[in-house]
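So, can you check?
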Amino acid sequence: MLSESVFCLLTEDLLIRVLEKLGPDRKPWRLVCKEFLRVESSTRKKIRILRIEFLLGLLEKFCNIETLDLSMCPRIEDGAVSVVLSQGSASWTRGLRRLVLSRATGLGHVGLEMLIRACPMLEGVDVSHCWGYGDREAAALSCAARLRELNMDKCLGVTDIGLAKIAVGCGKLERLSLKWCLEISDLGIDLLCKKCLDLKFLDVSYLKVTSESLRSIASLLKLEVFVMVGCSLVDDVGLRFLEKGCPLLKAIDVSRCDCVSSSGLISVISGHGGLEQLDAGYCLSELSAPLVKCLENLKQLRIIRIDGVRVSDFILQTIGTNCKSLVELGLSKCVGVTNKGIVQLVSGCGYLKILDLTCCRFISDAAISTIADSCPDLVCLKLESCDMVTENCLYQLGLNCSLLKELDLTDCSGVDDIALRYLSRCSELVRLKLGLCTNISDIGLAHIACNCPKMTELDLYRCVRIGDDGLAALTSGCKGLTNLNLSYCNRITDRGLEYISHLGELSDLELRGLSNITSIGIKAVAISCKRLADLDLKHCEKIDDSGFWALAFYSQNLRQVSCTTFTQSSY
């Protein structure tokens, strides 16, 4: 009674200020008392629905939301939307500004239009990966006259007609993603550019558009980010259209554009001195000296990704000399990357935060140690298949890179338990990939578990010396894990799965090829891991019907279970 009287003395404004200081998990706070619950319900701005049967009740409870996420409800259909809108006050629709329907493949054009028309303030919609969506759904989206942001990635049925309806109906669009909308052509892009003059972000990746589309896009005076990955019909002629257009362009991505050369990129760069990001992976056979020299004029350049390009020590040295403000550099699968080149690069790029050296097989501890010494602000380092890396450079990383959050050491055979002990000094680690590191054991995993409590994603694919004891330490120290890959870690048994069941935030779990786990362990996971959405059980031969019954009964949020125990490959 005393505690209730004290809380009643607190004003709503004070309670809101306290609430704003809390992290994303507010459930413990709202369970304290009715006042806390009332304030949290009235101020909550975003809600993600995990089970469709709770939708109506939650919308009535949280009536002031601005973002509704239904991406975890792929089976939602038109009838359910009709019921939700017809029952209750539906006051939540008046303030809704963003609607996430990614992968909601059960919702048709009728239900979509009902939702759009019921939300007059709607500014953002995500229907990505609704692969069955076509022009009727596009027509429904065009009813959102205030729409500023639209993601239609992999809406495979949308044609120029559907895009035209959106362009006419949603003239205020600022961000539009059309990636993999394969039926859209130059005609649709041309009309879009004539109607949606406020576009700041446009993604036409993998569309069958030609350089004529870039002529139209060049007329967009407010465009800041242009992405055209995999547009194989666009060539240097198209890039030259951009040279004198899009005066506010800050980022361009021409990755995997087979007909683009250094000449075309030089045209873009020469016309846009304010460029901040350049992506040109897998489209150039070699990074030419004139192109690198041209980068010197980009004083605001922060990000370069040139994956798969042939480079030299001279080129890397020139980048280090000309691009001192770089914060991200992608050299994944680049040929010609050596220790000398990396040392010369980072001597000039001391502000790097993200560095991708995937499959740069000739770099060793010398290069990585120099990176650790020169780039103290590093937050992401990718070293997959750099098999000359050992514990010596990880000692330097642990010593100097305290801000490191993501590290990929996949297939780095020199990584062992000692290396993980050094690495565990990076207490801010969130994502760690150790797949195919066959020399690590439960001892090394325990070091990570004890010192890296913020870990959310861990990949231990084919780490064959990892067993149940390692999982005991892991689940005790890294309680926030959401993604865990244990495929082919054959020492793991049902006891290990019992430890995994303590991970309440786990959503993605890969157990492929675990020959010693049974339905008993799977049941423990199903009962306790309520957020589990994706589960891989391929080649787990000892799991029988009772395990799948447990998943069906307890794991209500499962989107996919992959298995080969039966004739079907996916359930």
About this structure: Residues 565-571 have pLDDT under 50 and may be disordered.
